[in-house]
Design a protein that fits this description.
Mean pLDDT: 79
Number of helices: 25
Helix content: 55-70%
Structural class: mainly alpha
Order of helices and strands: HHHHHHHHHHHHHHHHHHHHHHHHH
Largest sheet: none
Strand content: under 5%
Low-confidence stretches: 226-237, 253-267
Distance between the termini: 87 Å
Number of domains: 3
Shape: rod-shaped
Length: 452
């Protein structure tokens, strides 16, 4: 390994104290002192592992127990390396592969440092130097799985997010992910998924997954989850909460489901369809999905007909929500569907439909008058009038709105009034055909005199 290569490796060492030790090991290597290079590299390795265990102790009971015992042995000047590695493996604080790598480094150190008759060569010294840096010194945390467990524990513990504003949540999640090693990514999200399938009363788990996908540009390893999520959770498509989180996380990562490979597309669509078609999904997750519509719309061009149909069903179930209105008005495949379904509700003779529509018109008057055309506006108000003219027991809210000359919806009233005054004849055909009018002139003029 040329000098420049070893210098480049040193630049990846995080702790300045470990950098100093490894620079000394590099000097030993380049003067032919391979035994000393191996020993110095291992001093850095075990010191770094000990430090990382101490950093995990406050939030991992196994790490805390191990840390205290190592401190006791160090104080007594007892050998602790073998014990430390054994405990790391038995407590699954490191994965099996990393444990095997650490054992091999230790064995080479023992053969080199003790009177075993072994003479270290350049290849062994280079191997130990490189492995020590890759295994521990270049990582922010050695105990990747333990760190992942800590993240899940914090998400379940309580109010981890100071607010539900996306930018604020992203700051918190960045702090949780910045020490996450690539080897722990799949483990972490499997743990989050397992926890989520048991419920998410505070919504922290769902928000964590959404935020982590928004942050994929900052954490490149997370991009792999766009393929990993459907595969990992495809067996749990009946769990509404899990489907809600998984499907949305995949969606906002872009090009769903065309970006998925290895035959995962059908499973992903199953997740997606089960999510948006599930009418029994909890209120909490329904609200969360409504909040996600804007992000979903940004990548809606890449979705299949199955996905579009599922979202359409979801929007119809949540038709009287301002978030649904705004989303549908900005998405051509959904705009006409929303208007048609809402007009049917507004003209309905059933209590639930007609009154829900009338109340939403009052609540969303500003948005409706912004998004609807003159023709769409007059048809909507005349639909309400039609429902209000029916049996009072079934259209009380509609009757109140129409009898009050639509003063409860000032934006729509002003828009329709102005349009009729400008060109009433052009609007005659857009007055609901089922509405009986008494005023003179065309239907638009009669509607104006009767109801506005």
């Amino acid at each position: 390994m040329p000098l420049t290569d070893m210098d480049e490796l040193l630049e990846s060492v995080i702790d300045p104290e470990m950098t100093s030790l490894m620079r000394e090991a590099s000097s030993c290597y380049h003067c032919g002192a391979y035994r000393a290079c191996i020993v110095m590299s291992c001093i850095a390795l075990f010191s770094d592992i000990q430090s990382k265990i101490g950093a995990m102790a406050p939030f991992n009971s196994d790490a805390k127990t191990l840390h205290l015992e190592i401190q006791r042995r160090v104080a007594l000047q007892d050998v602790f390396e073998d014990y430390m590695l054994t405990q790391l493996g038995s407590k699954t604080l490191i994965d099996k592969l990393d444990k095997q790598r650490a054992d091999r480094i230790r064995d080479l150190r023992n053969k080199s440092a003790h009177p075993s008759g072994h003479t270290p060569n350049a290849s062994e010294a280079r191997f130990v130097f490189e492995e020590v840096i890759d295994l521990s010194l270049s990582r922010k945390t050695l105990l990747s799985k333990a760190h992942a467990d800590h993240v899940v524990s914090r998400l379940l513990s309580g109010s981890i997010f100071i607010s539900r504003i996306k930018s604020d949540m992203d700051v918190v999640v960045t702090g949780l992910l910045e020490n996450l090693e690539p080897t722990a990514v799949s483990y972490l999200y499997q743990k989050v998924g397992d926890a989520l399938s048991q419920g998410d009363p505070q919504g922290n788990l769902a928000e964590f997954i959404c935020s982590s996908f928004r942050l994929a540009h900052a954490f490149p390893t997370l991009k792999l989850l766009s393929n990993g999520f459907p595969k990992a959770f495809s067996g749990n498509v009946t769990n509404a909460n899990l489907c809600a989180t998984v499907a949305y996380a995949v969606v906002v990562n872009g090009n769903f489901p065309s970006s998925l490979s290895n035959g995962e597309g059908p499973q992903s669509e199953q997740l997606f369809a089960s999510l948006f078609s599930n009418s029994t999904i909890t209120i909490q997750f329904n609200q969360w999905l409504l909040n996600s519509l804007e992000d979903w719309g940004k990548v809606s061009d890449g979705h299949s007909a199955v996905c579009l149909s599922a979202v359409q069903s979801f929007c119809i179930r949540n038709v009287t929500d301002k978030r649904t209105l705004q989303f549908c008005m900005n998405q051509l495949p959904f705009r006409s569907v929303w208007i048609s379904h809402f007009n049917e509700m507004a003209a309905s003779s059933t209590f639930t439909s007609a009154n829900s529509a009338a109340q939403f018109i009052i609540d969303a008057d500003q948005l409706l008058s912004k998004y609807l055309s003159n023709e769409e506006s007059i048809y909507l108000l005349s639909s309400v009038a039609k429902a209000g003219a029916g049996a009072s027991l079934y259209a009380r809210a509609s009757r109140n709105l129409s009898d009050g000359k639509f003063c409860g919806a000032p934006g729509l009233k002003a828009k329709v009034t102005a349009a009729i005054n400008i060109n009433p004849t052009a609007l005659d055909q857009f007055v609901h055909p089922g509405l009986h009018l008494q005023g003179s002139g065309g239907r638009a003029s009669a509607f104006l005199s009767d109801y506005l």
